[in-house]
Write a structure and sequence with these properties.
about 400 residues, alpha/beta, Aspartate Aminotransferase, domain 2, Aspartate Aminotransferase, domain 1, 2 domains, seven-stranded mixed beta sheet, three-stranded antiparallel beta sheet, 9 helices, about 15% strand
Length: about 400
């Protein structure tokens, strides 16, 4: 039987895991009030940056005594700022189960070269044994949601309430779509380009009072680049957490972030954003249940991401292929979909197992996901048919 081309396409075929789809209804007019051609240190610039911080606190329900700063270099810059400024005071447990977490392990072990480092890792699709992580006596660095694996921590119950160390959490693909347990987290980082569909280059760092105390009482043994410094003369640089950024931000990107935060409030704040992402993830879950040739990369349902949903092909004709051929098969599926204009940027991350990665964050509409799925089935059938032709 001939493979039938789907009749409809997504209205918005953008499923990239970063930068992600813009919020529904977005147009360039949303940026018309941007403070272009003005200094970010002028009152209009500082007011907008301070508003971005205040709205972030409101939407994410961040405690009043936690400080929020806008920092350079996206989430990567924020994580590096935290690690270079805070680690080394005590032993650190590094927890990783995908590409970015492994990158933080490399930086701590090979760049900072800390002496007392323990590493807890797991293969793609799984979590390490979190019970073995010493969250009471040691510092801990981990990602809340693995962007390249689609695996997240179910909650923060594994983190000790009476901890003496700090928890540093990369939450870039979790913030605004998953409930973060702020009382268990001392440093949280994320960027604008994920769940709210903002533009790249800017990161956010959130510090608990305990993290601030560490900054004020501990001086790293290594020199800190200017863009990592959060203290001056033994005091906290409070301006960073009031809109006085370390380097020059894009006021156009700031305006876009403000627009996204305003939209977030209109759809119900954090609860509304989580509901939208959860609903999107359920659309994918239904598709997986109905098709035996595809499955989640995440092994356990409770650890499956509701944002960066990663899938793998389970058809025996595909799994029997060598690793390189499986990767080529996945790329062929993605290519068929993209050439039809039915979905963009669906490929697995370069270091991840072959398959698909579909962004399901709050800015994605469920109707677009529902329109995408028949195209995945169509592209899979076309790619599988080509395997038989190659064999012949």
């Amino acid at each position: 039987m001939a493979n039938t081309i789907p009749a409809a396409r997504p209205r918005v075929p953008h499923f990239s895991s970063g930068p992600c789809a813009k919020r529904p209804g977005w147009t360039l007019k949303a940026l018309s009030d941007a403070a272009l051609g003005r200094s970010h240190r002028a009152k209009v610039g500082k007011d907008k940056l301070k508003l971005a911080i205040d709205l972030t606190r409101e939407v994410l329900q961040i405690p009043a005594d936690y400080r929020i700063g806008i920092v350079p270099a996206s989430d990567t810059g924020a994580v590096e700022m935290a690690m270079w400024s805070l680690l080394g005071a005590r032993g650190v447990d590094m927890v990783a189960w995908e590409s970015f977490g492994e990158g933080w392990v490399t930086d701590v072990a090979k760049q900072l070269k800390l002496a007392d480092v323990r590493t807890f890792t797991a293969p793609y699709g799984e979590l390490p044994n979190l019970k073995k992580v010493d969250t009471r006596n040691r510092d801990v660095v981990f990602t809340w949601n693995g962007t390249t694996s689609g695996v997240r921590v179910a909650d923060a119950s594994w983190i000790a309430d009476d901890r003496e160390g700090l928890t540093i959490c990369d939450a870039t693909s979790a913030a605004f779509a998953q409930k973060l347990d702020w009382q268990k987290l001392d440093v949280v980082t994320f960027s604008w380009q994920k769940v709210l569909g903002g533009e790249a280059a800017h990161g956010m760092i959130v510090l608990s009072p305990r993290a601030v105390e560490r900054l004020l009482t501990y001086k790293p043994a290594w020199p800190l680049p200017k863009i990592f410094r959060m203290t001056s003369g033994g005091k906290l640089s409070e301006g960073i957490f009031a809109g006085e950024t370390i380097n020059t931000p894009s006021m156009l990107a700031v305006e876009d972030y403000l627009d996204a935060l305003t939209w977030a409030k209109k759809v119900g704040g954090l609860d509304g954003l989580v509901k939208r992402a959860d609903g999107n993830a359920r659309v994918i879950a239904k598709f997986v249940r109905e098709n035996d040739w595809i499955d989640f990369l995440a092994v356990k349902p409770k650890t499956r991401s509701n944002t960066s949903v990663c899938l793998r092909f389970t058809d025996p004709a595909v799994t029997a292929l060598p690793a390189e051929a499986q990767a080529a098969f996945a790329k062929q599926v993605v290519s068929i979909i993209e050439k039809a204009g039915a979905g963009y940027d669906l490929g697995h991350y370069r270091d991840a197992p072959p398959g698909l990665r579909i962004w399901c964050g709050a800015t994605v509409q469920s109707r677009d996901l529902k329109a995408l799925l028949p195209w995945i089935a169509y592209a899979f059938a076309e790619a599988k048919a080509s395997l038989g032709k190659k064999a012949a």
